[in-house]
Amino acid sequence: MIRVAILFLKDALRDRVSLFWGVAFPVFLMVVFGLIWGGGGGEVKIPVYIYDVGGQMGRSLAEALNSAFDVKLVESISDPETFVVKKTAEERRPVTLVVVNRSVTVYSTSTIWGNIVHGYLRGVAYDRYLRGGFSAPYAEVPNATRPESVQITGIAMVNFTNSTSLELPLSVAVRFNNKTGIEVVLQNLNITMHVNESGAVWGGGAWPSQAVDLKIVGSDGGSLSLGALRVATALVLVVAMQAGVVGTAATLTSLITLGLNKRAALSRIRKYKVAAAATVSNFLFSLIGATAVIVVATFFRVDGLRLAATWQLWASYLLNFLFFAGIGLLMTNAVVFRKVRPASVVNAATALFLLFAFTTGYFMPLEILPRDLLNFALAMPTSYTMSFALAALQGGSPPLAMLAYPAAATAVAYAVGLAWAKLYAKP
Question: Where are the transmembrane segments (predicted)?
């Protein structure tokens, strides 16, 4: 048994394909992701836009957030939701907007970044309160001498600087301990109130639990529906990527394995017709998978009819498919000239499309990528197609010019693949 095992090991060591997938490819991934995650770049600063309706709090709030986020002030906005959808399409990554209008509202196209900014803002306001930068207007409490609970509703003030403050809604319940003192209990904070001849007056403050509101933009169904919409959009476009590179490579390599490529050459059928036939057949087959994804997505609160009727999605779909089909055409050369086994080519095509899917925002949200990997993702044409389709589905109107770069990249990739792909080696 040991001798047989040694023979198998020697055979594997002589096989270049086995060495590549067993040794070289893992080392390659370690080098790439090691440089990305551990070699530099660091975390991405979340882009946060601030719009102050009154024009007094914006700069102070920007100073408080600038150390943790990439803060930009906005002069005027007609509709916050339209703004974040448009900016998300332009930057091809989620965008968060903070609107200050007496209270604070956070608008975001990302559940991840939206909640991070929302939590940070609540922490900043609470920190200002603990430092003594919190005050509240006096509010009279009727019937102060009676030992019963009273609800107080008013406006609390959080002072960010000496000259600017933020008005926050406040609603707390107080109860009377005795005829001379009132204890306010809210979130484990005890604030003492005092009683005078006219009754009790508000003499302290408490942290309002709803000081900062959060709204995830892009779907009427809320964050759950937005997540499902994003997943459905990504999977439809991934189907195009997979069919383009894996399907095309598998079709042509099987043609070569069966010897039909030589028969086609003897029949003087030009390789362009064969390549085009493989492309069209895989495109039609991919539509079955895309349709299945859309149908299943309807069970997760996604409007399947709207998804299917959005032409921006199908324009992105076609570009994704043709871009990877061009790569699939090139990969067939390995079978013809290098005598690589067809199964190995298909495996390589699968690894390639998965690498793109995981590193360009399809299978992994762009929000969790480090800076270098995010820059790589944003440079790929697939990030443009994803942003274009998703912006349209979220109610925006992405400019058609967004597809100029992916269309040019697709034309080059498919033209090169069609020109260089060889279906048979010359004798």
Answer: 20-40, 234-260, 272-302, 314-337, 344-364, 400-421
